[in-house]
Amino acid sequence: MIKAGILGSTGYAGSELTRLLMNHPKVKIEFLDSRSYEGDTYSNIYPNLKGLVDIKCSSIDLANPVELDNIDVLFCALPHGLSQKAVQEGVKRGIKVIDLSADFRISNPSVYEDWYNVEHKALHELKTAVYGLTEIHRENIKTTQLVANPGCYPTSILLAVYPLLKEKLILTEMIIADSKSGVSGAGRNPIDATIYAQCNESVKAYSLGTHRHTPEIEQELSLMAGGQVLIQFTPHLIPMTRGILSTIYVMNSNNLKEKDLVEIYHNYYKNENFIRVLTGGQLPQTKAVVGSNLCDIGFKVDERTGKIILVSAIDNLIKGASGQAVQNMNVMFGIEEMIGLQQMPLWP
């Protein structure tokens, strides 16, 4: 059995990790860390897990985290800035670490510090981290000790654009992504923007040109393209609990037809269990992926404007966070990638 520990277990990402790992036949959870709920029974915080996860939460002292000596993998579901010390301790002990924060996603520490206003104090570990977009970096994930789990918006955008950028079939100068997310993406702590009376029956754009996922997206797009790529990225908050729908506009510089796109995407993703390429006029919708680790991708050629419109849908808490973390754990330990992630989407 793989012995796992979760830091920050009572946030939404941590709770999904807990739910998924408790159902994983090859994993045993050794501890659930929470500073806010130390000593509380986990199922009292998340009543959906009553009788299933009745572990008491503990607060791990990162100055002397002896609990890390008894595990094989550490999941860090902490806010950015707080994961660095935890990751250092895990790496030092030789265990595998999967960080769900932004601390190790951006390879250039100066860029990270500019966007997150936090000093990076784990530069050695940053150099060794592998960006954990599983379908693209699987081979490197197999051999690394530290995975930087991608953000939710980047996952939805990068998987959709990857085949066209990799094949150099679109212009890198014009990529526009319009993404919409449910309110769970803002986390469990209440903030003004997610109060029911203010977000219900309302849709709003936010962080125009300044969203912190932008440098992460651009870093990976640039690696795909083999040169610098900038993106116009606009996120929106919509009044639903979970899910992300991204609509991405790119120039059809090679006059591709829809049959060409079908062939290209099929060739790239035909062996991927968690990516579904929709054809025949079907387009992704969040309802069809919620509760699963799936990413649905569809497309449309707009011959009038000379653009390709890409659409993707994921569950932001699963494929966009905890499910992808479990997928990466499976790859790191050399076990079947789908184990513990075979839940079908909920409908309706």
Characteristics of this structure?
Rossmann fold, 7-stranded mixed beta sheet, 19% strand, 31% helix, Dihydrodipicolinate Reductase, domain 2, 13 strands, 348 residues, 6-stranded parallel beta sheet, alpha/beta
Question: Strands, helices and their partners?
Answer:
Elements: E1 2-7, H1 12-22, E2 27-32, H2 42-45, E3 73-76, H3 83-92, E4 96-99, H4 109-116, H5 123-128, E5 130-131, H6 134-143, E6 146-148, H7 152-166, E7 175-181, H8 196-199, E8 204-205, H9 214-225, E9 232-237, E10 244-251, H10 258-269, E11 275-277, E12 295-302, E13 307-314, H11 318-332
Helix pairs in contact: 1-11, 6-11, 7-9
Spans of at least 5 consecutive residues with low confidence: none
Tally of individual domains: 2
The CATH topology of the largest domain corresponds to Dihydrodipicolinate Reductase, domain 2
What composes the largest sheet?
7 strands, mixed
H-E order: EHEHEHEHHEHEHEHEHEEHEEEH
Number of helices: 11
Number of strands: 13
